[in-house]
Amino acid sequence: MTRWWQRPWIVPFAAIVVIFVAFSIPPYLSFDPARSRVPQPPELGVAHFWLLVPHVLFGSVALASSVFQIWPWFRRRHPVAHRRLGRVYVFGGVLPAGIAALTIGSLSPFGPATRASNMLLAAVWLYVTAKGWRAARHRRFGEHRRWMIRSFALTASIITNRIWGAIFVIALMPQLETTFHGDEGLLAWVASAATAWLGWTIPLLIAEWWLERDRSRRGAGARRSAEPAEPRDRVIAS
């Protein structure tokens, strides 16, 4: 059996999640709209902040609980805790965060392309998580695992989103006075749109690639197990 310390990726991933949550939550725990990191769109004004707060807090619950949910050692050794944390992940994390995201995503101050991405991401996130939960309820655990891997990819995309954002801002800033004619708002719209789409589609594509690779590997293993053993005397004679 693989022991917990033999999964070298879980420790750095958990550290990244802790750092990310510790950085993201404080402005919203202050309940001060002036500290919001997202500009308030005129359609909602300060109400945007009060929708953003539950999205950030519940999203942080989903992200933090996902660390344990994807940890194979934890799932095997603590199945009851895995099921209970699964309920926290779905009902205390993804569901309320996704519903809030549908509203605030449709009113993003960073333009229509970002709005479209945010709304589609929220809808897909809710859909794949609901499919995973339903599969577990019907004890279809292989299907449950595949849907929840997709859900995790979308949950963790908030981290990759920040990475893409930094990349696009750094890459586009030298073109501020040329391509964007000094318009910082336009640059922000373009960088945000590219970030919003790549931030979740790439993790989801990687998850699909991994699932397909895993399916092929399991299928090959099953075929080898089903093949009849070659007679011993024939092996020796050859």
From TrEMBL:
Residue spans crossing the bilayer: 9-29, 49-74, 86-107, 113-130, 151-174, 186-211
Record Pfam families: DUF2306
Entry superkingdom: Bacteria
Membrane as UniProt keyword: yes
Keyword Transmembrane helix: yes
Assigned keywords, A-Z: Membrane, Transmembrane, Transmembrane helix
Protein name as it appears in the record: Putative membrane protein
Organism (species): Actinoplanes campanulatus
Lineage per the UniProt record: Bacteria, Bacillati, Actinomycetota, Actinomycetes, Micromonosporales
